Amino acid sequence: MNKRELIEYVCAELETTKAGAEETVNTVLRGIQTGITNDETVSIAGFGTWNTRYRAARAGRNPQTGETIQIKASTTVGFKPAKAWKDELN
User: Fold this and answer.
1) Beta carbons of 70 and 57 less than 8 angstroms apart
2) Rg (CA), the chain
3) What number of other Cβ atoms are within 10 A of residue 22's Cβ?
4) pLDDT by residue (tens digit) across 21-79?
5) Cβ contacts of residue 86 below 8 Å, gap of 6+?
6) Angle at 63 between CA 77 and CA 54, to 5 degrees
7) CA angle, residues 21, 27, 30, in degrees to nearest 5
8) Domain segments of the chain: what residues?
9) Pairing state between β 74-81 and 41-44
10) What is the pLDDT of residue 90?
C-alpha cells in the first residue's frame, strides 16, 4: 500500500472527500515526524513505536569498484510493531 492507496482507504472508511482524507493522513504523518524530532519516540498502543536509532561510523564497500569506503555516523528512524500486531501476523 502506498500513500495514495492509504488516502483512498481513509476516504472510504470515513466516508469523506479525498481532500479531507489526504489532509487527515498528512496531519497524522506530520505528527509522527514532529514527535520523533522533539521526543525521539512516538508510541501508539496496539500499533507500535517509532524511535531514533544511532548508526556508528563504519567501513563499507563500493559495489561497483570494490573499493573500501568510510560511511559516516548517522541517525535514522526505526519502527517496532506492537506485540499484539506481531502475534496477529503470525
Assistant:
1) yes
2) 18
3) 18
4) 999 999 999 999 999 999 999 999 999 999 999 999 999 999 999 999 999 999 999 99
5) none
6) 20
7) 140
8) 1-39
9) unpaired
10) 86
Rounded Cα–Cα distance for residues 47 and 66 (Å): 41
Q: What backbone phi and psi angles, to 5 degrees, belong to 68? A: -75, 135
CA atoms of 69 and 59, how far apart (whole Å): 6
pTM reported for the whole predicted model: 0.79
Task: Print the SS3 string covering the chain.
Answer: CCHHHHHHHHHHHHCCCHHHHHHHHHHHHHHHHHHHHHHCEEEECCCEEEEEEEECCEEEECCCCCCEEEECCEEEEEEEECHHHHHHHC
